[in-house]
Design brief:
Elements lengths: L10 E7 L19 E6 L5 E2 L4 E3 L8 E2 L5 E2 L4 E5 L12 E2 L7 E2 L11 E2 L9 E6 L8 E7 L6 E6 L7 E6 L7
Parallel strand pairs: 7-10
Antiparallel strand pairs: 1-2, 1-13, 2-7, 3-6, 4-5, 4-11, 8-9, 11-12, 13-14
Length: 180
Amino acid sequence: GYQVPAALEGLVINEVMANQTKTWADASESPVRYDDYIELHNGSTAPIDLAGLWLSDKPFQPQGWQFPASSTIGAGEYLIVWTDADGARCPDPTVPKDDQPGSWECPDPTDPSRSSYHTNFALETQGDQIYIFDRTAAGLGVIHGVELGLQEADVSRSLMPDGDRTGTFEPTPTGTPGTS
């Protein structure tokens, strides 16, 4: 019974690269890494407030990673979200976390002021899914999503036609994040 609100109808997952090895560098990482990503697109004529929306790779666990306050996507814009499991944890140990042996806490590279977003989960190359869920107060309804089979290295799945929520995801060698 969930109906995508009119203010969110233009928001789609437009591209997914779940097996990246050398194509698009995540410049927020040092040293530079080639993390997997999703590209969101706002096909509407108004900015969309992303704060409080959720991304998850589990259809029955919608509260995977939440967009922080001050997160927006402008009208007609594209936004890259790195699915690198760096949100709240980093791969480079800096300070051990006492209550979780073997884990390390370090700065989350997510920074809405720089349009730099990093989820706390990674996508699986053998097959996975990714969904945008509405805010908790709105019932966590699915705004848009895609299920993926086995992913080739450095080949994204792009929504065709671009930004069309009823379109299909087609292979795109090398991907085209941030562009039509």
